[in-house]
Amino acid sequence: MTYQTLTHTRHGDHVDVVTLTRPEARNALDTQMGHDLIAVFEAYQLDTGGARCIVLTGDGDKAFCAGGDLKQRLGMTDAAWNAQHRVFERMARAIVACPVPVIAAVNGAAFGGGCEIAAACDFIYAADTARFAQTEVKLGIIPGAGGTQNLPRAMGQRRAMEVILTGAPFTAAEGHAWGFVNRVLAPDELMAAALATAATIAANAPLAVNRAKQAVRRGLDMSLGDGMAFEIEAYAPLVATDDRREGTAAFNEKRSPRFTGS
After folding, report:
1. What is the pLDDT of residues 148-173, one digit of tens each?
2. pLDDT tens figures, 92-128
3. When you count CB atoms within 10 A of the terminal residue's CB, does the N or C end of the chain come out lower?
4. Domains of the chain (ranges, CATH numbers)
């Protein structure tokens, strides 16, 4: 499929790259981009199409996503604003709920909704020139696409409180020190590193990867005991899979496994 505000391509056999492509607006999040991201990520919930890992990035070297498109929002009625925001809420839920691991490759500014899109991914690689911010309080609103939930889970309550309440930007290096960013790389090394990690994930057993992601995501909302019980529920069905048998056989035969997702 083709989209107005992003490109969706296959890299190799099992890695998809989703690129936000509104460079004239610093890849700002408008209503159409929200719909396009919903279309892409909700489709993965129905059929992964052979994708085993996704890299989400922005077009160009200036911005990952500069946040909500305030030019589009200028003069919006309250009703129109709320209608647009419902699109963004669904977009964030679609990214979080994606059964395939999603790596954010943050190539530049990730402010407001852009920071929330990155935070909704499973982990973040960032260029050393990237900057992040949750600027909503400077506009009379609060983060509403998961920022108040995903940031505390990544960097801790007190650090997230400071970031959200001040609206002040922070660097990729600071995000790394706080546990928000996994790796900081030179801009020209960012995509290669993200794709290499995506390929490593894609080479693992896809059913196991998807269930591990689900166990971590859902377990964070449970008590330790309930989370451990859910972990076993995710683990047990894997025992009867072809991939479990293939993984064990490949290990003993000293060869690379050939996982089929069955």
Report:
1. 999 999 999 999 999 999 999 999 99
2. 999 999 999 999 999 999 999 999 999 999 999 999 9
3. N
4. 6-202 (3.90.226.10), 206-252 (1.10.12.10)
